[in-house]
Amino acid sequence: MDPMIASLDVLFVLLGAILVLFMHAGFAFLEVGTVQHKNQVNALVKIMSDLGVSTIAYFFIGYGLAYGVFLGFNLENQLTQAMTEKSGYDLVKFFFLMTFAAAIPAIVSGGIAERARFYPQLLATFFIVALIYPTFEGIAWNGNWGIQAWLEAQFGAPFHDFAGSVVVHGVGGWIALVAVLLLGARLGRYDRQGQLKNAHPPSSIPFLALGAWILTVGWFGFNVMSAQSVAGIQGLVAVNSLMAMVGGILAATFIGKQDPGFVHNGPLAGLVAICAGSDVMHPLGALATGLIAGALFVKAFVWTQQRLKIDDVLGVWPLHGLCGAWGAIAAGIFGSAALGGLGGVSIFSQIIGTLLGLSLAVIGGLLVYGLIKLFIGIRLTPEQEYEGADVSLHRIRANPHHDQM
Among the four residues 281, 305, 369, 401, which has the most C-beta atoms within 10 Å? Predict the structure, then answer.
């Protein structure tokens, strides 16, 4: 039965990889629906191109940095092993984890939309996926540097992030915050007194909703299939993901006053937060985690846009950065046996691991985007931004025939 089990594991992880890969369509349409009409093509092209660069960066450098297996070298040995002992499990595991890595630039894309230069962003994508993201990925998921062992020795449990609340979403959200601050606000977004001048409402609520739905469905592959084996499947992960998703929807609906942008980002806030503890929480703990995440997203989005004057177009720092950090801490709270969880977590390890991941994200983001800004430049010219990236960069509009009528 061993070959059969190995083949089932390959199929299981492959299906997870396909689901998470499809989530990139969700990232694309969520951005398309949120940005102005003159930047819709740019949103689509960025997400697709980022995926290509991410795959190359992770194949040759990132995966090896995180797990010590450099797939781009010693090809004969890799292929022999893939066709004999493990039925290609190592290769399909790379595929699955690559789709996680590629989510980082997709997250960043939403924050810096409508004013970022195209090729400098692709360069940033390469360095983030090759070096910044896999550094913390290796620490959290492969035990690199011995930090997990130290946390377990000190606090009784290592940092626990089952499906990436901090490893993926927190890191992506805080890199995005750095990039947004270095870019500055869109032209005309705020007046000279710093007051919000142009709201730039979503260009297409249907596209925004489509993107949110694709992400929501794909997220069950993101979470459940993070077990990475058939034997590790947990119905608990699926139910907790559902409950957190619903909590995010309800909180965003009522606190966001039925605003469709908030309503459709609400489930994503809940799902970001539940990634870390979906395998250890009680479903009621997952519901509470989602409710808090949905409320946190709405309040933080308004706060960053109106009070802090941070022009984060899709609100990726509140959604991924803050809700991701909350999710890791929530795993330490609601994952404890005292609150109905399965235990094996430590709130102290969760806080330290979260701070470490976010610190690496901020430092890495400053290095990558700061150096690119210094030596190349990361922002469109005022003329290009005013005209829109679709025409100025891609020489076509989203609906060229319609625009000519």
Answer: 281
